[in-house]
Amino acid sequence: MAKKVKVAEMVEQCHLEVLAGEQGLKRLITVDDLHRPGLEMAGYFEYHPKERVQLIGKTELSFFETLSPEAKRERMQLFCSEEMPCIIVTRGLEVPQELMDVCQEQQVPLLRSQMATTILSSRITNFLEKKLAPTATIHGVLVDVYGVGMLISGGSGIGKSETALELVKRGHRLVADDAVEIRQTSDFQLHGSAPELIRHLLEIRGIGIINVMTLFGAGAIRNNKRISVVIKLENWQQDKQYDRLGIDEETTRIIDTDVPLVTIPVRPGRNLAVIIEVAAMNYRLKRMGYNAALQFTNKLTETIAEDMEDFD
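and the corresponding structure tokens:
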């Protein structure tokens, strides 16, 4: 289901002044894009994106003032519509009476801000992106290891929380345990955080619930983190062939984003915290252009080729 934001919520968040159309504050905003209606002021409405928040600045109003009173009212009647969430005038500029009258008639919220157009545009875009971003809640643990967001998944009781505890003891930071709320931004990045109720808490079987910030300090936690890698813990299966070189890179899809997936088999004697640390460092090296598995494969191919030449 698509997310929506009421205009009234944006008015409160961005400290906007309501000038007209107060009855329309319950209108819904469905997209995070903004629109500056310069062409519409000039009379071109062929591709007018009515569903966007309309931002009117000094440029648009300066041109609008050159029109005749009849043309002003005609343009405003074409401009305002039922699909439009609201109109915002920036810089505290004086609003034309024609726009005030039509907004009041059509019950389109007419708002004003003292901020510059570019600053207000950035603030509203950030607000709408957070509110309208696709979200999902996933069972797992999210930790920040060497600056890399690692989402640890796996079946219940496999050791996710215990591994996170060991990572925290080794100087890394906990973001969320048990339930991870994930938000996808417009550039297809995933950001995870903990629900308010269980923030900073970690459940360890046999001990119970512990507060990581109280035990280990503020440096052991963070409120949100971009998810870069998914670590899947699974019980060791004797008949399963696990990747021993790391050439085949798996991915998993969360919402609409593909994330690198590393499957780690669990059995007694394996130090999962160290393995996850190495996975984080290896991910950083790959982002810097170094791939140990690929270099090994290339060297192996060269060695085999040289041996074949000597054999011939």
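(Above: one complete record from the training split.) The longest strand covers residues 257-266.
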